[in-house]
Amino acid sequence: MILPIRAFGDSMLRKHCHEIDKDYPQLQELISNMFETMNSANGIGLAAPQIGLDIRLFIADLSPLAEDEDYAELADEFLKFKKVFINAKILEETGEEWKFNEGCLSIPDVREDVKRKETVKIEYFDENFVKHTDTFSDMRARVIQHEYDHIEGILFTDHLSSLKKKLVKGKLSKISQGDVSVHYKMRFPK
What is the active site of this protein (predicted)? Predict the structure, then answer.
């Protein structure tokens, strides 16, 4: 089932999310719905707050990037990178900071350069509640950091300089008022 994605301005996007256990109601169905929702919106990551749940759950699927010439050397890795992160905790962020033009399904039509560390070490449970501690670099680390921010109540626009925040303020206001055109289901603040 395709779920509506919460738009900028929705208070759910600012919640610090809580952990869940393996008995969370209809967890597998929720995960399936999240992948379907993300794919229908042409995204590569989606966090539970974006669909109205304040739980520590996010997903990522980098397979769409495997066809991008810029990532040719990582195509095989990206094809295999379809993951569920439950109760994630970033243990360490290392390496050089690098800028990349980020966007977000909750903030359509806004893209800005964000600096993030190149490598992340993260502890999480997968969809079967098997615990993992993994280290990811490159675009995988960036997507994890972006989605992790969501479960902490942080948006990528929070990482912008004061000047950049002023420049996108009008666009953000329009989004929160529902004045944006997207090809996927969205829910706007009331």
Answer: 147
CA distances from 153 to 19, 26, 134, 157 (A): 14, 24, 23, 12
Q: In what order do the strands lie in the sheet with 45-47?
A: 45-47, 57-61, 82-104, 107-125, 131-137
Task: Show me where the domains of the chain are located.
Answer: 5-179
Report the binding-site residues.
104, 146, 150
pLDDT digit string, tens, across residues 3-12: 999 999 999 9
Binding-site residue positions for Fe cation: 104, 146, 150
User: Which SS3 state, helix, strand or coil, does residue 92 take?
Assistant: strand
- Residue 128 is classified by DSSP as T
Catalytic residues: 147
pLDDT band at 109 (very low <50, low <70, confident <90, very high): very high
pTM tops 0.90: yes
Residues 6+ apart with CB under 8 A from 93: 116, 117, 119, 120, 121, 141, 145
**In 105-161, which ranges are E strands?**
107-125, 131-137
What residue type is assigned to position 142 of the chain? R
